[in-house]
Specification:
Blueprint (H helix, E strand, L loop, with lengths): L2 E6 L5 H11 L6 E7 L14 E7 L2 H4 L12 E7 L14 E2 L3 E9 L2 H10 L11 H12 L4 H9 L4 E9 L6 E6 L4 E4 L4 E4 L11 E4 L4 E5 L4 E5 L4 E2 L4 E2 L15 H20 E2 L4 E2 L6 H7 L7 E6 L1 H8 L1 H9 L3 E5 H4 L10 E7 L5 H12 L3 E6 L5 H4 L3 E4 L12 H20 L5 H22 L2 H11 L4 E6 L3 H16 L2 E6 L17 E5 L5 H13 L4 E6 H4 L9 E5 L5 H23 L17
Parallel strand pairs: 18-19, 18-20, 20-21, 21-22, 23-24, 23-25, 25-26, 26-27
Antiparallel strand pairs: 1-4, 1-10, 2-3, 2-4, 5-6, 6-7, 7-8, 8-12, 9-10, 9-11, 11-15, 12-13, 13-14, 16-17
Helix pairs in contact: 4-5, 6-13, 6-14, 8-13, 8-16, 9-13, 13-19, 14-19, 15-19, 16-19
The structure holds 2-deoxy-2-amino glucitol-6-phosphate.
Length: 626
């Protein structure tokens, strides 16, 4: 969480840093700040006590904007931060950069031993202005400089004192021609320009300036000046910086007439899925693009016919997508699949072998727990495939192979198109792996490919249900609680539907397997408890109808998401609201279709309640701390 950005060169940097922060705001929006060297004092002359100027504001970047005029217009070196609060409430005092005219620090991560450090520094006479874990870093640097160390040594002196995860940007008045950056566990990328250099938490903030970047590894420090970059590892050995050319395709970052990014991203899904199908499947030759699926790369490392177990790791929405692997990979490929939350998995001692395949799902490719799980699995000898959206992000860089979703930038904090893209990628990967393992006969493959070809059209039809979902939202937006139920492939969809509603409308919602209702949750059902039942015409249809009846018998109002096939008999099933989407015989693809009305329902409920749909309270798009 938190976005950091810095620049040093010859261009005025205040608005450049601000614009970079705007691209990073998805990482946190509790407060923001910018610090620059005051060049009116002369960069290379001895700096006076006001060498660094600092502005900060509580809340989103829009609150910082009017303060930008308080910074020297001609400044050409500075750092900026947009915060997701971990230690200390959102406030000006807790906003970054921390420090003063001599030293400033921006930080993404958590200093786990900050309490001990704080009390040691307090004994030395330091008084703290903020409640953050970061402020200790400023005083540790001050202590080091006071003891006679040079700037570089002062930065190195931090390493042995700090525990936790951090990406720092550090400016010191003693060395106004450089910015130091340090990376340990949090993302950091350096952008290389002509006579200017940059750094940021995410390449997204740099792409409009340069495509030449250095991804720092954990345990590395760099000194960035206008003319160059010097990198060291924590042992102090200089290492030649290795640059990479970004092949990021920048999707549109505009709302394109939609009221919210989330609504735009919901409606983008049919075209995103159509593109993904084109990339992963050669529909003309009726075969899979094994290369794009990551299977060729995997095959170089592991005999795909010999994989004995599959472990899925992910968080949040990505976990719900990964959960589907039980209903997809396992039956198609005949390999046992285990699915686990990355935050739990990373601390366990799982049974993994060189014939285990670990699949990490992540939109951002930066989620701290998922990344740690990937590293943990690799250390245990497993093969790692990641299914990610953001190219060059940390999880793909730590995996043996990556299947990119290429869904384009997802700006809304609540994930929508990334979820359906993950499901699609998982499905095609499962088919591809089944084909490689000789478990897919030609006619089944043909049928499945045909279903894939028509899926985007069916999704478009489902997305046209917006007005109907808006009407339902009107009748339910004041609810305090809500249950979602589904069986089989609709179970992960129920979990995801509930997460979407709670994230953006702040209504308490839970997802359950339909069969679990009687084991407890049904006690909650009365006329104040709407139950959203995902009931496509599949093998669970009759069982789900029984669940619906049980809810109705207790006065619960049922919103039933079903498909056109169930309506052929003219049934209404006595539910309060019925929503019908297109039918497909392939359960995973049906699950993709069922997702759309649930996203739209959550969206319209949130809009009716007047919440901040794209940037809901307390959340951040990329969770880079555990
Ligand atoms: C989804 O709406 C969330 N905001 C969140 O659960 C997200 O899916 C999770 O943090 C995982 O993110 P990732 O896909 O970038 O790893």
């Amino acid at each position: 969480m938190c976005g950091i950005m810095g620049y040093i060169g010859n261009r005025p940097c205040v608005s450049l840093i601000f614009e970079g922060l705007e691209k990073l705001e998805y990482r946190g929006y509790d407060s923001a700040g910018i610090a620059v060297f005051d060049h009116r004092k002369g960069r290379d002359s001895v700096q006076g006590p006001q060498a660094i100027k600092l502005i900060k504001a509580e809340g989103k970047l829009a609150k910082l904007k009017p303060l930008l005029t308080g910074l020297p217009e001609g400044a050409t070196c500075g750092v900026g931060h947009t915060r997701w609060a971990t230690h200390g409430k959102p406030s000006v005092e807790n906003a970054h950069p921390h420090g003063d005219e001599e030293i400033v620090v921006i930080h993404n991560g958590i200093i786990e031993n900050y309490r001990e450090l704080k009390s040691e520094l307090a004994k030395k006479g330091y008084s703290f202005r903020s409640e953050t874990d970061t402020e200790v870093v400023v005083y540790l640097l001050r202590e080091a400089l006071k003891s006679g160390m040079g700037t570089k040594d002062a930065v190195f002196s931090l390493i042995s004192k700090l525990e936790g995860a951090y990406a720092f940007g550090i400016m010191m008045a003693k060395e106004p021609s450089s910015i130091f950056v340090v990376k340990q566990g949090s993302p950091l990328v350096i952008g290389l320009g002509e006579g200017e250099n940059f750094f940021a938490s995410d390449a997204l903030a740099l792409i409009s300036h340069t495509k030449k970047v250095i991804f720092l590894d954990d345990g590395e420090i760099a000194r960035i000046s206008a003319d160059g970059v010097t990198c060291w590892n924590f042992a102090g050995e200089e290492k030649p910086p290795i640059s990479t050319h970004l092949d990021l395709v920048m999707g549109s970052m505009e709302k394109q007439g939609y009221r919210h990014f989330m609504l735009k991203e919901i409606h983008e899904q049919p075209s995103v899925i159509a593109n993904t199908v084109r990339r992963l499947v050669d529909l003309k030759k009726e075969t899979f693009c094994f290369d794009t699926l990551g299977l060729e790369e995997m095959a170089r490392k592991v005999d795909l016919t010999r994989i004995e177990s599959i472990q899925i790791v992910a968080c949040g929405t990505a976990y719900h997508a990964g959960f589907m692997a039980k209903y997809c990979l396992e039956p198609l490929c005949g390999i046992p699949v285990n699915v686990e939350l990355a935050s739990e998995f990373r601390y366990r001692a799982p049974h993994l072998t060189p014939s285990s395949l670990v699949i990490a799902f992540s939109q951002s490719g930066e989620t701290a727990d998922t990344l740690a799980s990937v590293k943990h699995s690799a250390a245990l000898g497993a093969n790692i495939l990641s299914i990610c959206n953001v190219r060059h992000s940390a999880i793909p860089r730590s995996s043996h192979a990556t299947l990119y979703m290429d869904a384009g930038p997802e700006i809304g904090v609540a994930s929508t198109k990334a979820f359906t893209s993950m499901l699609l990628c998982l499905y095609v990967f499962s088919l591809g792996l089944a084909a490689k393992r000789g478990r897919l006969d030609e006619s089944t493959m043909k049928d499945r490919l045909e279903e894939l070809r028509v899926l985007p059209f069916r999704m478009e039809k489902a997305a046209m249900l917006g007005p109907r979902l808006r009407e339902i939202a009107e009748g339910y937006y004041e609810m305090a609680n809500c249950l979602y139920i589904g069986r089989g492939t609709s179970f992960p969809i129920a979990l995801e539907g509930a997460l979407k509603l709670k994230e953006i409308s702040y209504i308490h919602a839970e997802g359950y397997a339909g069969g679990e209702l009687k084991h407890g949750p049904i006690a909650l059902v009365d006329r104040h408890m709407p139950v959203i039942a995902v009931v496509p015409k599949d093998q669970y249809f009759e069982k789900m109808l029984s669940n619906v009846e049980e809810v109705r018998a207790r006065g619960g109002r049922v919103i039933m998401i079903t498909d056109e096939k169930t309506l052929h008999g003219g049934g209404h099933y006595g539910v309060a609201e019925l929503v019908s989407i297109p039918h497909t015989d392939e359960p995973i693809l049906q699950a993709i279709l069922s997702t759309i009305p649930l996203q739209l329902l959550a969206y319209y409920v949130a809009v009716r309640r007047g919440t901040d749909v794209d940037q809901p309270r307390n959340l951040a798009k990329s969770v880079t701390v555990e």
